[in-house]
Amino acid sequence: MERPGNGQPNKKGLLERLRAGDTIIGDGGMICEMEKRCYVQTGFWTPEVCVTHPQAVTELHREYARAGADVLQALNFFANESLMQELGIKQSVEEVNRAACRLCREVAEEKGLLFTASLTATPVFEKGGSREEVVDSYRQQLKPIVEERVDFIMCEWLFDIREMELAIGAARETGLPVVACMTIGPLGDRCGVSPEQCALRMARAGADVVGTNCAVGPRVCLQTLHRMRLALQREGLQPFLIGQPIGLRTPEDGRTMIGRPYWPLACEPVTITRFEANLFAREAYEEGIRYIGGCCHFRSYHIRQVVTVSVPRTAAEPGGLVVCSVTVLWTGRAMAEELAKERGGRQPEAASRLGCWGGGLDRFSEPEVQSRVGRQHWAHVAPDLHTLGDQSPAQHFADWKSALKRSVSVDY
Ligand SMILES: [Zn+2]
């Protein structure tokens, strides 16, 4: 497949940077964030938003860039023909994929970042289509994606390793680097293929970077990636590792968020805090993961936290990233203080001037708020679910009038 030249001739590629020891920071979940902003519909996850509301997509790319991401991902999620037909989307596959890539590329070039676009699960595969039909569907998407000069191809939101292998095969035809993320936790893919086997099969299919995206929260994602890493090591395979979990706490038994009754519309109570994003990045780095980002419910402030706190940038790399000094991790001093020197003063565009562990709260007049500055507080405080109510919305609002009578004496 013919590839036009890159718009940033001096930019280092993904693999070049990874081989040089950099750690790449991804962006957050585009489609969920667009849903929260009322531009797309839940369930339809309509990718034509890139055509209908391009300014909203551009603004979100810019936010992730300001947060310090090294890679921006085009919003071409689900933009394959069979799915678009099912959803009744009137735009063409070419139009949506091209528009998504252009919006993303404009911001990436403006900020000097890498950019990518994705291949995801297709109804063609789900309905038992042939290998050729599935691969043709991916090739149809890849044509505009490659013509718009992405830096690499991201295969993600794939639940069956067999479909992943087809996606990797199609992506490899472009000659671009291929990143492959199974959307799984420790229970493996839909057919019960283990994380270990998925990792080996992605690597053997030719993916340069392998790991997981979405599905499970940061902690369970780490457990899954740990098993993948050990399996790859045992077999002498050495792809780079990627982790882009969902920004929610998910059950320790490995079940994915999709199985929770409150997914996808009532997930706010289990959304991770910015400090959990930070701690995830730390642990991921120590696990040897060198492409660290987020998927759904990871918002721009989570990414900023990842960059600001956990990954000091090399002074020579304007787009990003990372060499993390393990020696600073457990000193007990505030993380931001520790790493400010390591970063040589480099910060994301949107970094807080006052530090990322609650800096600035000491300006409040209330002493109890003033005391909430520093890692010691924010790494150890937990949401007070008993006070805030671990109840359903119906329980929460039931009997509020009688509760008022019990708690307040109204006397006019
Ligand atoms: Zn996701």
Walk me through this protein's architecture:
The protein is of the alpha/beta class. The protein has two domains: 14-349, Homocysteine-binding-like domain (TIM Barrel), CATH 3.20.20; 357-401, no CATH class. It has helices spanning 14-19, 30-36, 49-52, 54-67, 81-87, 93-111, 123-126, 131-147, 161-172, 195-204, 218-234, 274-286, 300-310, 335-342, 367-370, 375-378, 385-388, 393-397, 400-407; strands at 24-25, 71-73, 114-119, 152-158, 178-182, 209-213, 240-244, 291-292. It has an eight-stranded parallel β-sheet with strand order 1-8-7-6-5-4-3-2. Strand 4 (152-158), helix 9 (161-172) and strand 5 form a beta-alpha-beta unit. Helix 4 (54-67) packs parallel to helix 6 (93-111) and helix 10 packs across helix 11 (218-234). Bound molecules: zinc ion. The site of zinc ion has 5 residues, from loops. Zn(2+) binds at residues 214, 295-296. It holds the Pfam family S-methyl_trans. Keywords: Metal-binding, Methyltransferase, Transferase, Zinc. It comes from Amphibalanus amphitrite.
Annotation keywords:
single chain; 412 residues; alpha/beta; TIM Barrel; 8% strand; binds zinc ion
Brief rundown of the structure:
With 412 residues, the chain is of the alpha/beta class. 42% of the residues lie in helices and 8% in strands.
